[in-house]
Structures are given as structure tokens and as C-alpha cells.
Design goal:
Strand order of the largest sheet: 1-2-5
Shape: globular
Helix content: 10-25%
Number of helices: 1
GO molecular function, one term: calcium ion binding
Strand content: 15-25%
Order of helices and strands: EEEEHE
Organism: Physeter macrocephalus (Sperm whale)
Structural class: alpha+beta
Radius of gyration: 16 Å
Protein name: Protein-arginine deiminase type-1-like
Distance between the termini: 40 Å
Number of strands: 5
């Protein structure tokens, strides 16, 4: 990185690719606790009970070092929602 600039220190899970119930998530390379990455375990514990399948992908050299993540290298065509999702009130 250039001087006076900012970038991510590690891969950020939110920069994933969603393909139906499958999530292509940047591998965070977090601390290993009980034989597994504690960051991956936390993400799995939050998303897999929702019926989602977490797939962690090592994109460190291919995208992260070049200041990108998995979503930067994808071009996913999606069917638009039949409603104006931005009007949905939780």
C-alpha cells in the first residue's frame, strides 16, 4: 500500500458471494483455537443454523493482496426481486 492510504489487515467475511444457500466467504486466517479458526467457527455458528452453507475460500494472494476480496472477482447474474425490497420494514 502507498503511504497515507488505508486497507484491510485481514479478509472481511462480509465481502462474500451469496449463491442461494451457499456462501463463498474469504478465509479469515484467524487465531486457531481447539484446532480450528475461531473466526470461521463464529461465522459458521451464526449462519449455518439459518440453513446456509459456509465455504471459506483462500483469496489472500489472488485478491486480498491486491486490495480486493472474493466479490471483486465475481460477476453473478441475479433475478431481481418481484418487490421493492428497499421499502421493506423489519
Amino acid at each position: 500500500m502507498k503511504q497515507n492510504s488505508a486497507g484491510s489487515t485481514w479478509e472481511v467475511e462480509v465481502n462474500m458471494v451469496v449463491l442461494d444457500k451457499y456462501l463463498g466467504i474469504p478465509k479469515p486466517f484467524g487465531p486457531i483455537i481447539n484446532g480450528g479458526c475461531c473466526l470461521e467457527e463464529k461465522v459458521r455458528s451464526l449462519l449455518e443454523p439459518l440453513g446456509l452453507c459456509c465455504i471459506f475460500i483462500d483469496d489472500y494472494l489472488s485478491y486480498h493482496k491486491l486490495l480486493g476480496e472474493i466479490h471483486c472477482g465475481t460477476n453473478v447474474r441475479r433475478k431481481p426481486f418481484p418487490f421493492k425490497w428497499w421499502h421493506v420494514v423489519p
